[in-house]
User: Fold this.
Amino acid sequence: MSSSLAGPDCCGGLDNIDFTKADLCIMTWLLGYVDPSDPCFVAAVFTIIFNPLFWNVMPLPLPLPRLGPSLAQPWSTPLCSSTLLLTVARWEQKTRKLSQAMGSPYLACYALGGVILLLNVLRSHCFTQAMLSQPRMDSLDSPVARLTGLLLLGLGSVLVLSSFFALGFTGTFLGDYFGILKESRVTTFPFSILDNPMYWGSTANYLGWAIVHASPAGLLLTAVVAFTYVVAILYEEPFTAEIYQQKASQLDKRS
Assistant:
């Protein structure tokens, strides 16, 4: 999760990254130690990909209002007019169906947060089982590597917990999509030093956990975690910024 209102990306953000120049030798080397067809590994990949995308790019049916010819949009084909690619949280932001069903936006946010937490527990369990079902790497099975892994676990835990305390439960679990908006962007630690610290703290935790277990499978799964978070951020941040722009516009109209 990021702070409630995104600021400018450092150095132009992800648009300035040339992924075609990425060195894939490490990934190829790791695949030499990993059996991607192992059921535990497949389950871990599925839970890693599903969890963030569950509330960011999961398709949900949303009937659109009938528009007259003068209001028709270019995407108003029979298929697109019956379904929009919306997320769970975005669907709630557009329809308020969850809030209406729960009787309160706070209860709805708590319910979604609870589901997200349970999915994260399942993801961590699958991640660990995938590591235990695959071979260990002797070069990582050393005191120095284990200490490095523990330090990463400590760093990741600090980032995750401090993010949670800075944002609160509703700020962490997409409360702004339920109409629970903060007055301004959160700029206290760890948001003062890093964008999306909860995502990157979680990634550091998985990396540390993989190194502690001297697990090539864990390292490969951590790369999947990082990539999935990058995709989630690309979907989440622009939409969150749009929510706060709408709030600012409404305040300007009232004043």
In short: The beta strands are 60-61, 83-84. The first strand starts at residue 60 and ends at 61. The chain is about 60% helix and 0% strand. The longest helix spans residues 216-254.
